[in-house]
């Protein structure tokens, strides 16, 4: 990841800091400046932000280490100003497992809040304990504002001390739990919601419902963020993120479902043109201009399948007006699959390995081809019915 800085690797998972994270420190300086904080106060504020992101990081480790129990590894964890992202290789598909992976994150913050509260009980006594409770309540109810400013002054507690920051940290952890549990897919609450639904109505329908709820909540987030720009502008950002990911996740799950249900035989095309490797490029160029086929299989003199000729290469030849070149000069490697090969593997060959055409064989005989256009057509037909 170019746009991020690698901090360290813990439990075998690399932790990255997104470059926009620098904004947090700019923001901290700005808060410090507008609250007339001195150097010590500003350092306390920075320390608070670091502690806050340590909590976010532990939250992500909650997801990652639970996923590891189900054999799912984490590529990395990225910290951004609006939160952390644990990039899991995939989500476990069993609803119970997804439920546990999703809820593990917020549970970490519950534990942190309880531990910090316990520590506060030990270190603050008498009046300081009363103040702690008051600040915590104040933070939780978002009452903030003039009132707390006054109390702060009267009590003689400055914004540079543990008595000010511990309650804020406890409240923020509780806030993280509540916020993450909002059922806006793909936030944790949305995943929990999807997994619970999936136990009843199956993963595809559950995802569609969760994605829809997620998009509605995302729109609300965006609106609330826009109308309270000064206090909640990040909510708009999160809203956009939720909206886009909810849609993407829905189409991904739909795609995965189709891929799982069909085999290569379901979309192979039995009629296809056979080219010979020592024929001229003139032939495929004309076929590309006048026919429907875009990619071809190429055979040798003894009619054995040897290579593939892809649209891109035919266009390259056309550009150079290389009509009389032998087809052999433009061919690519060819890949075979069996008729009972899963569509997941076919998808992998087309989209990840970049093959434009795949030969399909049955009991050693070539029976047809699958190409990108046919694949897209098939997916369109199937997703209409889903
Ligand atoms: Zn989470």
Task: Produce a short descriptive summary.
With 386 residues, the protein is α/β, with parallel strands linked by helices. It has helices at 22-34, 39-69, 95-123, 126-140, 146-155, 162-180, 188-201, 203-227, 229-261, 282-290, 311-319, 343-352, 372-385; strands spanning 4-10, 13-18, 74-80, 83-88, 274-276, 296-299, 305-309, 336-338, 357-362, 365-371.
Features:
386 residues; alpha/beta; CBS-domain; 2 domains; four-stranded mixed β-sheet; three-stranded mixed β-sheet; 60% helix; 14% strand; binds zinc ion
Structural overview:
The chain folds into two domains: 4-261, no CATH class; 265-385, CBS-domain (Roll), CATH 3.10.580.10. Helices cover 60% and strands 14% of the residues. The protein has helices at residues 22-34, 39-69, 95-123, 126-140, 146-155, 162-180, 188-201, 203-227, 229-261, 282-290, 311-319, 343-352, 372-385; strands at 4-10, 13-18, 74-80, 83-88, 274-276, 296-299, 305-309, 336-338, 357-362, 365-371. The strands form three sheets. A four-stranded mixed β-sheet has the order 1-2-3-4, covered by helices on one side. Strands 5-6-7 form a three-stranded mixed β-sheet. It has a three-stranded mixed β-sheet with strand order 8-9-10. β3 (74-80) and β4 form a beta hairpin. The two termini are 36 Å apart. The structure holds zinc ion.
Summarize the biggest pleated sheet. Answer: 4 strands, mixed
Work out the radius of gyration: 29 Å
User: Helical stretch count?
Assistant: 13
The stretches of 5 or more residues where confidence is low (pLDDT under 50) are: none
Tell me, briefly, the overall form: elongated
Compute the average pLDDT. Answer: 86
Percentage of residues in strands: 5-15%
